[in-house]
C-alpha cells in the first residue's frame, strides 16, 4: 500500500482485528464452509472466527446507522421513508478470493439478520457475451471496464435501491466462459445485496453514475500481484484436471493437449490481460473501499485496513 493511500486507513494486524469482537461462535460449520468456498481457495473456521465475525459485527453497525439515517430523512420530510436495501460491494483481482468472501458474508449475514433477505450477485452476469466481444475485437479486454454492460448494471442497482421486484440478471458460466442465453438469476425483495466483481469500484468512462455510488459498505480483497498470479495458475491447473472429461467445457481443449503449452498460454493471459487489468483498473480503485483485507501467500488474511473517513 502506498504511503499516501495508507494515511486514509487505520491498519490492524490479524490479532488486533480479532480482538474487536470475541463474542459468539462461527455461524457456519466446517462442511458448509468447504461447500461455499471458491474453487481452489483455502479458508478455515479460524478465519471465520478471527476475520469474518468482527467484519459482520462492523457491517451490522454500519447497517444500524444507515437505517437510522433513513428514518431521520422520513421525519424531516414528515412522511414514511422506506429503507432501501443495504448494498455491499466486494472488489479485487481475478483469483484473489472475492467469491469466497462474498459467500461467507452472505451466509453469516443471513443468520445474523434472520428476517432479512440477503442476496448475492456477481458482475460477471453483466459482461457482454462473447459474440459481442469478438465482433468489437475485445476478447483480450474481457474483464476490462469496456467489456461490461455498465448501463444495464447501473440500471439494475437503481431498481434494487427503489425496491423494484422481482429482478432478473443474466447468468455467466465459467465452464463455457460466456453468458448463458436465456438463463437468469432472480433477485426478489433483497434487504441486503452483496455485489462481487473485479469492476465494482471502478470509475467507467462516459458514465454520470458509478457503481460505487450505490454501495453502503465496500471491501477490497488484496494480495501481492505475484501471489495472485500463482493462485491464478494453480486454479487453471485444477480446472484442467476437472475438465478433460467434459467436451463442452471451455478448458477441454487445453485439458486434453500438452500441459506445458496450456500453462504457457495461461501465463501469457495473466500478463497480457489479468495483470494489466489489475495494475491499470483494479488496484487504482483500492482506496475507494471502506475495508481492505490483505492476504498472504498461504491465503490467510494477515492485515485489515479500515477507512478513517
From TrEMBL:
Organism for this UniProt entry: Vagococcus xieshaowenii
Q: Name one GO cellular component term.
A: cytoplasm
Q: What is this protein called?
A: Pantothenate kinase
Recorded family membership? Belongs to the prokaryotic pantothenate kinase family.
| Transcription recorded as keyword | no
Source gene? coaA
> Which biological process terms from the Gene Ontology are attached to this UniProt entry?
coenzyme A biosynthetic process
Classification via NCBIfam families:
panK_bact
The protein's UniProt keywords, in alphabetical order, are: ATP-binding, Coenzyme A biosynthesis, Cytoplasm, Kinase, Nucleotide-binding, Transferase
Q: Where does ATP bind?
A: 92-99
Amino acid at each position: 500500500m502506498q504511503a499516501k493511500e495508507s494515511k486514509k486507513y487505520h491498519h490492524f494486524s490479524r490479532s488486533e482485528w480479532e480482538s474487536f469482537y470475541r463474542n459468539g461462535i462461527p455461524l457456519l460449520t466446517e462442511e458448509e464452509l468447504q461447500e461455499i468456498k471458491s474453487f481452489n481457495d483455502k479458508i478455515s473456521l479460524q478465519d471465520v472466527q478471527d476475520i469474518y465475525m468482527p467484519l459482520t459485527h462492523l457491517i451490522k453497525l454500519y447497517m444500524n446507522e444507515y437505517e437510522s439515517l433513513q428514518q431521520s430523512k422520513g421525519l424531516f420530510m414528515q412522511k414514511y421513508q422506506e429503507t432501501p436495501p443495504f448494498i455491499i460491494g466486494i472488489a479485487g483481482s481475478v483469483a484473489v478470493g472475492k467469491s469466497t468472501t462474498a459467500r461467507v458474508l452472505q451466509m453469516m449475514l443471513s443468520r445474523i439478520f434472520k428476517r432479512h433477505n440477503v442476496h448475492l450477485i456477481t458482475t460477471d452476469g453483466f459482461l457482454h457475451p462473447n459474440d459481442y466481444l469478438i465482433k468489437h475485437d475485445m476478447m483480450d479486454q474481457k474483464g476490462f471496464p469496456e467489456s461490461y454492460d455498465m448501463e444495464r448494471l447501473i440500471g439494475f442497482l437503481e431498481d434494487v435501491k427503489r425496491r423494484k421486484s422481482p429482478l432478473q440478471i443474466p447468468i455467466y458460466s465459467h465452464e463455457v466462459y460466456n453468458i448463458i442465453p436465456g438463463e437468469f438469476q432472480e433477485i426478489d425483495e433483497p434487504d441486503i445485496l452483496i455485489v462481487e466483481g473485479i469492476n465494482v469500484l471502478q470509475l467507467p468512462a462516459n458514465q454520470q453514475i458509478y457503481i460505487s455510488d450505490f454501495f453502503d459498505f465496500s471491501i477490497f480483497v488484496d494480495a501481492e500481484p505475484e501471489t495472485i498470479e500463482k493462485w491464478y495458475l494453480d486454479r487453471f491447473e485444477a480446472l484442467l484436471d476437472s475438465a478433460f472429461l467434459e467436451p463442452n467445457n471451455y478448458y477441454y481443449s487445453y485439458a486434453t493437449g500438452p500441459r506445458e503449452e496450456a500453462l504457457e498460454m495461461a501465463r501469457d493471459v495473466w500478463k497480457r490481460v489479468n495483470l494489466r487489468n489489475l495494475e491499470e483498473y483494479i488496484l487504482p480503485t483500492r482506496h475507494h473501499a471502506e475495508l481492505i483485507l490483505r492476504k498472504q501467500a498461504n491465503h490467510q488474511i494477515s492485515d485489515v485496513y479500515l477507512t478513517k473517513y
